[in-house]
Amino acid sequence: MLGSLMPETARVMLLRRFGSPLEEAAIPVPELAPRAILARIAAAGICGSDLDIINADDPRVPADRLPMIPGHEGIGFVEALEGERRDLLGKPVKPGDLIVWNRGIMCGHCYQCAVKRRPSLCVNREVYGITLPARAPTWLNGCYAEYLYIRPESEVLILPPETDPASIVAATCSGGTAAHAAELAQISLGDQVLVIGPGPLGLFCAAFALARGAAEVWVAGTQRSRSRLEIAEAMGCRVLFTDDLPGTADRPFDVVLDAAGTPRSIQQSLAAVGMGGTVALAGLAAPMEPLPIDLYESISRRGVRLAGVWVSDCSHVFQAVSLVLSGRYGLEKLVTHRLPLSQANEALELVRSRQAMKAVLIP
Questions:
Q1: Burial 180-192 (b: 16+ CB within 10 A, else e)
Q2: Number of neighbouring beta carbons within 10 Å of residue 33
Q3: In angstroms, rounded to a whole number, what is the distance separating the alpha carbons of residues 358 and 45?
């Protein structure tokens, strides 16, 4: 095994009961399987999905998965590894490297993985901090912790040593999903693009639309999201309020990226998209009530494509990390709050109350 002496225990924030505050605990650090990595967490992001999990609103987390360590957005230093590992670029992984990993663990052999080459739809997909309980044999399965056990099958990428870890955490989730949405929407040069929802997901969607050559990117938000819309303007986007949709663009929107995922935003997306355009539902991540949509008028007669966007794969995470590292759109500004691991409950409340754009735990 390469690296320093393995710690015996790790501090973690445990979810023992839905709807209850997380509890600080110390749990065992397991032995590493061949090609596994023990990462010392440098930054863990608070995601809106974490709130759904804690409130029992995420069907991927039934009660028998508890206790669990939340947190699927993480960056860390290699503390130890068992055997040889190489990253996505073929570089050998060694102790002390700053790395990012794909939050999803795909099987690689199901129909979606092996035949259709759509690993984000892997039927056996597991996710750090979501579907993996905090129990033997691996224990450290979420990023609200000092350490994370990175499984042998997980893809990893070595980051430049000067990287601010907190600036990358959103790329592992919101950024990857946004890259997937832009890909499915087939944004091309000259497109008129609307993004609804100026949170981390929406601003990553806007950045990818700009990077793909959209003629104009509009970002729509509510009156209380003015500060977030200002970030969108600084990126080079035009902004409007959702009450003003379908909008004031010079011509109909070719693509609408719905990063809000609410009944209202979905209806607004379908109303705003032009003939032959595409609506990508990037923000729909939890169950909701069925919507009364006139499929004939909204979709069929107008030739509109409606694309579901479910999570991402390592190619999308790689794109998102690369976009942040490029410094082109100031995506590091999404991080507004940094708190110690012990204040995870306070960080969750900052996200719940929308006081934080992106809150990050620094163990």
A1: bbbbbbebeeebb
A2: 13
A3: 7
Measured CA to CA, the distance from residue 17 to residue 67 in angstroms comes to 7
Helix ranges (H only) for 24-140 are 48-54
Q: Which residues of 203-224 are buried (b: 16+ CB within 10 A; e: fewer)?
A: bbbbbbbbbbebebbbbbbeee
Phi, psi of 337 (to 5 degrees): -140, 135
pLDDT digits (tens, 9 = 90+) for 128-151: 999 999 888 888 999 999 999 999
Cα pseudo-dihedral 183, 189, 194, 199, rounded to 10: 60
**Residues 262-307: pLDDT tens digits?**
999 999 999 999 999 999 999 998 888 999 999 999 999 999 999 9
Please give the backbone phi and psi of residue 61, each rounded to the nearest 5 degrees, phi first.
-125, 85
Question: Token match 């040593």: residue?
Answer: 161
